[in-house]
């Protein structure tokens, strides 16, 4: 540790007598050479940063501090980002990440599905969001928790269900019961590629991808035996410190590192990313903070439209970095513009134009699609309406009356034209024990006119599908084809040491698939991103074969 306040002794002055003596030219030459050697020595010695402002000395110091920067994975360049909020928002960001990776010719680091609302962004329209650096740090911490501690807690919950609660500590029993009720955030590691089928995007060579665990195990030198340990507190201090250091690097806490990391700190408050259009790079966006907001919040943000390829692509400082780290990649239409990414088409780039079309709809993996179709055919056995009712989360808990009124109008319309009873699949976050006294309770009682269907996590179809997904391990397949880091061996170790000991929570995904199969229509909660995702699935006929099956009944 260097003491920047230490007083450096002042050299004694030469006596006047000596200074008046004539000196040999060789003396001055020797003094000059000694000065050069001294400066050379200082440049390559760890010294306080405040004494020198040279960027090269800073880069050298950071490279020594972060040995991860010296790791090169088969000459690949990577793109990392920090997703947030619920699954539907994370899926939207994943699509944008695939697009950005394709445009910038980088290998996408596939993240896990984060616990619902474990990471919050804020409000772009109100210019009140967490910074990209803050989001990256929070996501890193949460993902590492999923890897290191989630497995242990998951194992304990499985033991509780199989061997009785008496073997578990009181706190663990309480935690597991809360998780079974859906009130405790899931700590299971499930890759986005375990749930979403991206094989068509990757097979067409539009994008390259690597699983987050595969990347981190090599980049951070992760000890898989220890990181995936079942026992509590078995991770040694050096492993925890190494993960923190690696997370600090990838999150851009210490700034950019030449040829290693470039952290993008431009967010929705200042930037709208574009690509290959005719507008001037850096032009003002149509949506800007109004004068009232500027005065009230004392902000001075100016939103500019910037071409992502020109800013972060070939020839830029960012392009030389092995890892390009974004914050959130979430965007949405707002007041005639987009909040963060406005790349709807790429007429001058056929490859990216094709990628844009492909990512508009990314289906679930075959195991989930098959389970949804099976429920519709073997359980409902008739044309049905899907009712997606989001009633407990955020703003939705204040709009029960409007939601139930919309569903009633839909069912009344079907009652006038169809036969009785009307089959309805109900997808809701409201526990069945709380249906009494509201419209759902009334529907459940009216068995003459309505027959309701729903799913639970404990249903055999859900459990069997989860087992198939756990064995399939779709996510870990991505990255094993990257040479230079013994990636095949890395994946094998991950599969051995980090194999899931608890089934992934896939109820939401099967329910969405079932809703896409509803041949009598779909009623979704206004403003719900889950409803938006189901509408996209129905638009792209993800259950078209299922509808043909109903016609044959």
TrEMBL record:
Q: Which residues cross the membrane?
A: 26-47
Source organism's superkingdom? Eukaryota
This protein's UniProt keywords:
Membrane, Transmembrane, Transmembrane helix
PANTHER family cross-referenced by the UniProt entry: O-FUCOSYLTRANSFERASE 30
What's the protein name? Answer: O-fucosyltransferase family protein
Instruction: Give the organism the record lists.
Output: Gossypium laxum
């Amino acid at each position: 540790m260097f003491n920047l306040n230490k007083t450096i002794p002042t050299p004694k002055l030469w006596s006047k007598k000596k200074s008046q003596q004539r000196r040999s030219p060789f003396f001055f030459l020797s003094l000059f050479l000694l000065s050069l050697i001294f400066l050379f020595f200082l440049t390559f010695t760890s010294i306080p940063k405040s004494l020198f402002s040279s960027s090269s000395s800073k880069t050298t110091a950071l490279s020594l501090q972060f040995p991860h920067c010296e790791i090169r994975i088969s000459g690949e360049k990577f793109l990392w980002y920090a997703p947030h909020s619920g699954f539907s928002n994370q899926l939207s960001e994943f699509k944008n990440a695939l697009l950005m990776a394709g445009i910038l010719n980088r290998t996408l680091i596939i993240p896990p599905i984060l616990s619902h609302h474990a990471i919050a962004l804020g409000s772009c329209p109100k210019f009140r969001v967490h910074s990209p650096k803050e989001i990256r740090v929070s996501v890193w911490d949460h993902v590492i928790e999923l890897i290191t501690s989630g497995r242990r807690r998951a194992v304990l919950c499985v033991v509780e269900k199989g061997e009785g609660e008496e073997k578990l500590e009181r706190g663990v029993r309480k935690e597991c019961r809360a998780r079974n009720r859906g009130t405790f955030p899931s700590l299971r590691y499930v890759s986005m590629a375990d749930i979403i089928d991206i094989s068509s995007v990757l097979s067409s060579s539009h994008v390259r991808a690597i699983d987050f665990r595969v990347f981190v195990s090599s980049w951070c030198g992760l000890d898989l035996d220890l990181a995936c340990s079942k026992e509590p507190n078995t991770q040694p201090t050096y492993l925890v410190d190494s993960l923190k250091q690696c997370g600090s690097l990838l999150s851009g806490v210490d700034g950019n590192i030449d040829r290693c990391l470039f952290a993008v700190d431009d967010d929705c408050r200042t930037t709208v990313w574009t690509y290959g259009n005719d507008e001037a790079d850096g032009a003002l966006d149509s949506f800007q903070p109004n004068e009232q907001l500027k005065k009230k919040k004392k902000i001075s943000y100016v939103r500019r439209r910037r071409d992502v390829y020109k800013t972060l692509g070939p020839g830029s400082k960012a392009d030389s970095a092995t890892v390009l780290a974004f914050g959130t990649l979430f965007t949405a239409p707002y007041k005639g513009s987009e909040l963060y990414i406005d790349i709807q088409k790429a007429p001058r780039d056929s490859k990216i134009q094709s990628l844009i079309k492909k990512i508009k709809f990314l289906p679930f993996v075959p195991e989930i699609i098959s389970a949804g179709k099976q429920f519709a055919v073997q359980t409902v056995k008739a044309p049905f309406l899907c009712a997606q009712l989001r009633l407990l989360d955020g703003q939705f808990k204040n709009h029960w009356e409007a939601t139930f009124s919309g569903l009633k109008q839909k069912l009344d319309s079907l009652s006038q034209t169809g036969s009785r009873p009307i089959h309805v699949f109900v997808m809701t976050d409201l526990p069945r024990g709380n249906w009494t006294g509201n419209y759902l309770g009334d529907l459940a009682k009216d068995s003459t006119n309505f027959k309701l269907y729903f799913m639970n996590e404990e249903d055999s179809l859900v459990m069997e599908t989860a087992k198939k997904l756990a064995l399939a391990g779709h996510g870990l397949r991505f990255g094993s084809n990257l040479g230079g880091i013994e990636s095949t061996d890395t994946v094998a170790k991950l599969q051995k040491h980090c194999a899931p000991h608890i089934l992934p929570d896939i109820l939401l995904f099967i329910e969405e698939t079932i809703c896409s199969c509803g041949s009598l229509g779909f009623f979704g909660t206004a403003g719900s991103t889950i409803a938006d995702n189901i509408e996209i699935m129905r638009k792209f006929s993800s259950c078209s074969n299922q509808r043909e099956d109903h016609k044959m009944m």
